[in-house]
Design brief:
Elements (H helix, E strand, L loop, with lengths): L13 E11 L1 H7 L16 E8 L11 E4 L2 E3 L5 H4 L10 E2 L11 E5 L4 E2 L15 H12 L5 E5 L5 H11 L2 E6 L5 H7 L3 E4 L3 H5 L5 E6 L7 H5 L2 E9 L11 H5 L4 E4 L5 H14 L5 E5 L3 H10 L5 E5 L6
Parallel strand pairs: 8-9, 8-11, 9-10, 11-12, 12-13, 14-15
Antiparallel strand pairs: 1-2, 1-6, 1-15, 2-3, 3-7, 4-5
């Protein structure tokens, strides 16, 4: 059932965006079910929005009415702390997430600070671009930080995040190995650009990869044999976590000391990182593989996501959009 929500007056530095499409992320499902213990109800979820600017606050910069933009995981930050001033707005202690304490994109309109409404490149397919604004930048950021075109990169999990990670790493020039527990995804992973595919359930196959990877990106939210995965790292290699696994990650000290290995993680990305990622995606014709539902069938879309059968991201088309 639709409900009218009064968003109040537009902030001086905010913009309002008419939602055209919005990706459905597993984080939306986690927020709906309060899996992280931080949900606030009633909630309007949705944080992978593409649409057009319909209103601009008097102090907003760099955007114009009618411009097509995207709004992702975050919709605001303080703009004056050390992190914001140094370009790491997503690490701001006052960062405003789009679906916690804020009205998200499963709606006709969404608001954000102007800096978090990211202009979409003209050649980017905006219909499919929504998942890039959260999942896309989440996997692109560690590649930009920790890889180069000569890197050997492993991607753990070929799902909503992982399939985009494979596409980005392959376009970057890396040698890419995909890990998946689902053998039906082997050929698809190669189609996304993986040079090699390994079953994440095959301990013997994983054991043969000792000392191989410069960067291993985990996109899954399930427990793994983490020491075995660290064993696949080359000297100075890094295991980077972007999948929100809730269990502790046990790692022995010696698995890090010998080989000078690192374990790290990162959330989403800054506005500059998002813009860079979108430009890269546009240049290399990278788009997520999607399934579309009208937003009026959001309950069906959520059930599809919860079933684990989506290949590989769901995008909602705003069929109740108003002018």
């Amino acid at each position: 059932m639709l409900e009218a929500v009064d968003l109040g007056p537009l902030g001086a530095e905010d913009v309002e965006v008419a939602v055209e499409y919005c990706g459905l992320c597993h984080s939306d499902l986690s927020a709906l079910d309060n899996n992280w213990g931080i949900s606030q109800y009633p909630a309007i979820l949705g944080h992978e929005v593409t649409g057009r600017v319909t209103a601009i606050g008097p102090n907003a910069k760099g955007l114009k009415l009618g411009q097509r933009v995207g709004v992702g995981w975050n919709s605001g930050s303080c703009m004056h702390c050390h992190q914001c001033m140094s370009g790491s707005h997503h690490l701001c202690p006052e960062v405003q997430t789009t679906i916690f304490g804020h009205r998200g994109g499963f709606a006709t309109h969404i608001r954000s600070h102007w800096a978090w409404a990211i202009p979409l490149p003209e050649k980017l397919d905006f219909v499919e671009a929504g998942p890039l604004l959260c999942g896309g930048v989440t996997v692109f950021a560690p590649l930009a930080m920790h890889a180069n075109p000569n890197s050997r990169v492993g991607i753990i999990g070929i799902g909503g995040l992982g399939h985009m990670a494979v596409k980005f790493a392959a376009a970057y020039g890396c040698e890419v190995t995909a890990f998946t527990s689902n053998e039906s995804k082997f050929d698809e992973a190669k189609g996304f650009g993986a040079n090699h595919v390994v079953s994440s359930r095959d301990s013997a196959a994983i054991g043969k990869l000792g000392g191989r990877f410069d960067l291993l990106i985990s996109t899954v939210n399930v427990a793994l044999d983490w020491n075995a995965m660290i064993g696949t790292l080359a000297p100075n290699g890094r295991l980077h976590i972007v999948g929100a696994v809730l269990e502790p990650i046990p790692v022995t000290a010696f698995s890090l000391i010998f080989g000078q290995h690192s374990v790290s993680g990162s959330p989403s990305g800054s506005p500059v990182a998002m813009g860079t990622m979108l430009d890269f995606a546009s240049r290399h014709h990278i788009a997520p593989q999607t399934e579309h539902f009208p937003m009026s069938r959001i309950n069906d879309a959520l059930a599809r996501l919860a079933s684990g059968k989506a290949r590989y991201r769901i995008v909602l088309d705003a069929d109740f959009r108003t002018a």
